[in-house]
User: Fold this.
Amino acid sequence: MATNNLTRERKGLFPLPGISPLLLVPVLAVIAQATLIARVRLGGACPDALLAVVVAWGLLRGISAGIAWSFVGGLLFDLVAGLPLGTSSLALMTVCFLTGLGETNLFQGNIFLPVIVIVLATPLHAGIVLLTEQLRHVQVDWTGVALRIVLPEMVLNIVTVVLVYPALRWLAGKVGAQRLNW
Assistant:
């Protein structure tokens, strides 16, 4: 009978044992980023849905959950965007340490926390991606990118995290204390 239950569980929506269906969220964020969200522009920038999702989830579920989403989403984003594999994962996982602000009692429950973290995370994320490009001997105009892309992207990311955070807070409440498994 136990074998039958295990077989029935594997035939469900997410049939891979040991891997959380929550890891589909960053995958969906990358798909949305590559198709729909890339059309939303402010100057030369568009919102970074994956960054907003990773920041929100890291604030809601802790650094380790954010890092898991960063790794999965970052690798997929690199494949879609044509970046060297690991570039986005490295930048997103580094940004996840900012979400540790949500774990202190001083900031916990602050309504502005996702906005504050996304404001800090956007230039950090961009800086790491640009640094990896420069290490590959790609010419980088740091000032131009900061003014034309990073600042408008920061504004768009604020709007994105304000929209994404309540939905992910609802999801976090539904899954309770579930831990992400690889």
Notes: Helices lie at 2-10, 24-35, 49-61, 63-81, 87-96, 113-135, 142-175. Residues 22-174 form a domain with the Arp2/3 complex 21 kDa subunit ARPC3 fold (CATH 1.10.1760). The chain has one domain: 22-174.
